[in-house]
């Protein structure tokens, strides 16, 4: 209806636009000797791309409007744009020449729309965007796709040779075809929303092997089955975010073999257990074994988050046994259920502290151990323990934050 008016009676469209849309705020400032001219049209009720803005704008914020379609040549008169946000509209159609003229664009944000990855990404759509660095199209699939198998429009993406950052949704059983090999400069890959069920050895095989950061968090709608070689395509990763994905800590630890002996800055494995885990293979209450730790043990890891994983105990030389403990800076064990109650656990902790010379954070809070026996009596519990060990813990000199609170 709207497009009909736009195409046939432009004058009437202008009237509509004046009635429904307030003017945009235009500001100019210098940034690193570059002139930034911003048109902020955020939340003004626009139903199409406004055409009366200054032609030399470099930043255009159209987020939070009511734009449903990007028509051909919508931006042809804004060829200096390097930042464009169309986030939080109701976009569901992009015409073939929607981005015509945007050869300087570096940042494109279309998050929080309803662009269906399967149908709306025409092979030509991104052709003008040869300088795009950052593309955000996450949170566009509103609910779990009914068909698992999902072919991503790889031929549309393949022209984005300079892309470094990509954020998008991931379907239950995604297929990232050969076109993704074109994204040779991709450094950071974020998936959100996540409906993933199968993470296979071939899932990421067509992405750049230079990837530095992978975010695959909050995949908690399905049990996520992970093949052992899932991360083999990414040998250079230094930041891994799997938090709140139902993949189970056992599987997450089992795919770290590509990083044997390497450095990982962030390994976020917080909350990988879900109420659906209750079998022997993937128990809800987990005892960490040396076998599970065999890859992680060798990694020089700086920030490690193992919070909320239902860990009730750990074997000798497992959880606290690292080949390079001097790498560890921040360690989080929050919300598990294991104790340093017995001699051996306490001894391992002491040895660990002696060796982790760079440790700044050790977070072992909210651990409901022995709730029935020592209900809420933190001092009694720890007092007893120290008494049994009859010993003193030497904390690393580097330690800035020791959180032992809420141990009940
Ligand atoms: C737009 O600019 C006007 C005048 O500078 C200012 O009062 C107003 O708060 C701005 N609106 C927004 C949404 O930033
Ligand atoms: C536009 O204004 C909104 C507030 O109305 C602000 O949140 C947003 O960051 C601004 N966009 C840009 C690109 O400055
Ligand atoms: C947009 O351009 C394409 C390619 O030229 C054309 O097929 C399509 O009909 C155009 N869309 C409209 C609404 O004119
Ligand atoms: C861009 O500007 C030219 C010249 O003023 C005009 O003919 C054309 O319609 C404009 N494009 C759009 C999409 O409004
Ligand atoms: C352009 O967008 C990116 C990503 O949203 C942002 O970090 C950057 O500050 C923006 N630049 C300008 C000049 O608004
Ligand atoms: C990756 O590309 C190859 C061609 O080089 C293709 O055979 C394969 O199926 C692609 N992988 C996926 C998961 O689509
Ligand atoms: C830890 O270091 C302290 C002081 O250097 C030493 O007395 C203690 O024996 C060490 N403990 C362990 C378990 O290595």
From TrEMBL:
Q: Which Gene3D superfamilies match?
A: Ribonuclease Inhibitor
Report any Pfam family annotated for this entry: LRR_8
Its membrane topology is listed as: Single-pass membrane protein
Q: Where in the cell is it found?
A: Cell membrane
Keywords, ordered alphabetically: Cell membrane, Disulfide bond, Ion channel, Ion transport, Membrane, Signal, Transmembrane, Transmembrane helix, Transport
Q: Where is the signal peptide?
A: 1-21
- GO-annotated cellular components: plasma membrane
Q: Which residues span the membrane? A: none
Instruction: Provide the protein name.
Output: Uncharacterized protein
Species whose genome carries this gene: Mytilus galloprovincialis
């Amino acid at each position: 209806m709207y497009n009909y008016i736009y195409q046939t009676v432009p004058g009437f469209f202008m009237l509509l636009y004046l009635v429904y849309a307030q003017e945009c705020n235009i500001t100019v400032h210098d940034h690193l000797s570059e002139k930034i001219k911003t048109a902020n049209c955020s939340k003004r009720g626009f139903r199409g791309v406004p055409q009366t803005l200054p032609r030399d704008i470099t930043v255009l914020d159209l987020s939070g409007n009511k734009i449903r379609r990007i028509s051909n040549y919508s931006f042809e008169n804004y060829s200096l744009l390097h930042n464009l946000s169309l986030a939080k509209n109701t976009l569901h159609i992009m015409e073939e020449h929607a981005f015509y003229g945007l050869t300087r664009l570096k940042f494109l944000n279309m998050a929080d729309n309803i662009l269906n990855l399967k149908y709306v990404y025409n092979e030509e759509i991104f052709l003008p965007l040869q300088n795009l660095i950052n593309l955000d199209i996450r949170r566009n699939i509103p609910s779990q796709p009914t068909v698992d198998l999902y072919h991503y429009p790889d031929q549309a993406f393949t022209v984005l040779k300079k892309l470094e950052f990509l954020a998008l949704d991931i379907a239950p059983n995604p297929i990232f075809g050969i076109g993704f090999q074109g994204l040779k400069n991709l450094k950071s890959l974020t998936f959100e929303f996540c409906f993933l069920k199968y993470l296979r050895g071939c899932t990421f095989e067509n992405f750049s092997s230079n990837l530095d950061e992978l975010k695959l968090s909050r995949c908690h709608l399905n049990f996520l089955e992970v093949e052992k070689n899932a991360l083999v395509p990414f040998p250079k990763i230094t930041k891994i975010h799997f938090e709140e994905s139902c993949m189970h800590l056992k599987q997450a630890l089992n795919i770290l073999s590509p990083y044997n002996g390497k450095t990982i800055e962030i390994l976020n494995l917080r909350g990988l257990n879900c109420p659906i885990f209750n079998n022997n293979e993937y128990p809800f209450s987990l005892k960490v074994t040396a076998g599970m730790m065999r890859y992680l043990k060798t990694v020089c890891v700086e920030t490690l988050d193992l919070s909320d994983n239902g860990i009730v105990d750990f074997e000798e030389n497992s959880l606290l046994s690292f080949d390079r403990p001097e790498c560890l800076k921040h360690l989080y064990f929050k919300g598990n259920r294991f104790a340093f109650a017995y001699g051996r656990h306490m001894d391992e902790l002491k040895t660990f502290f002696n060796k982790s010379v760079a440790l700044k954070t050790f977070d072992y809070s909210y651990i409901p151990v022995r709730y029935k026996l020592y209900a809420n009596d933190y001092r009694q519990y720890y007092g007893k323990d120290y008494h049994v060990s009859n010993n003193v813990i030497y904390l690393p000199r580097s330690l800035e934050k020791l959180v032992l609170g809420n141990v009940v």
